[in-house]
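Fold these two proteins, one after the other.
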Amino acid sequence: MAARDPLPEAPQSQPSDARLLLVSRVDPDAFRVLYERYAVQIHDYHRRCSRDADAAQDLTAETFAQAWLVRARFSDDAGGSAAPWLFGIARNVLLMSVRRRRLEQAARARLGLLGDPAAVAHDSHEPDETWLEQLDAALAELPDGQRAAIRLRFDRDLAYDEVATALATTPQAARVRVHRALHALHDRMTQAKEAGR
């Protein structure tokens, strides 16, 4: 009887995204595989939305960093695919970036620091990290009540009556705290700007 040719081996099936995320809890290489599957698609999404190649790189990195941090919370709701989950994270990262840029521009406008053409031109690309660090430092120097009021008013975009409720005070007192905080921040940021010249 003639020997038969051996049957070709069936190709090994690739692990699902859900499986990779499960394994990535103990084996980081599994997450690398997931990254390689989706990095180009996520980057293309961010590039389309931001219209900025550099920003798209940063947003893609942030998307996968966030995915890594919350990978244990992944719920397989798409038949093993992580695409909807990853694009949901990408969308949140993009929205947070846009919101942060708007907050930065609003803060600059309210602090009267939009007169610098170089700063305005820079705004159209990405947040100025040095300026944000100076603002964070100035915020940290405010009294607790003023810092809380300004964060509620601008970070959370609350109306003055909502700020007052959150701080257990009156709307008028909330306005005073915000006004004083803005005045103090303006002074500190102007001093920092002049010192940097």
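Now the second one:
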Amino acid sequence: MESPQVRTSTSLAYEICAVVVLWVALFEFNSWLFSAAEVSRYINWIFLPAALRVVAVLVLDWRGVAGLFAGALFTCAPQVGVNMAEALVLASLSALAPFAAVSLVKRCLRMARDLKGMTYHQLTVIAVVAALTSAVAHNIFFSLQHASHAWSSVFFPMLAGDLIGTLVVLFTSALVLRALPNIAK
């Protein structure tokens, strides 16, 4: 019989791996589905994986951050023109920006740790703050890397893509979950 620690370590690994797999799959699906809305491989006017950032952090906390980091590293590192140091920074920003946003909003709105009673308003606030945090953090990095970086060409598509992608997934999921009990009747 396994000890509780082994079982816990195994379940933690499964949770992190699930986020990695979901990130990569959702990233590739988004690239395929919204290729016409791409500004670049990493910036899209509709970016569905941004919702996973919010959900992973809300539900799994630091385990979600670890999964997001690894998933972002997998989708970033193999690309031509991105060195490993850049890939590590971009993956860190992709994982830590939503963590900072969710932590801030949960504290400011005095949300329960178990997320019971979470409202559409709170989800919307989290989505807006997470999109803004991610866009600002990434654009600061881009500005430090490239003196000629134009915020307007990247900031607005990144902000809009993260916000639209998150809201589409969160509200569609909420509607489906609310309809499920009615389907069973």
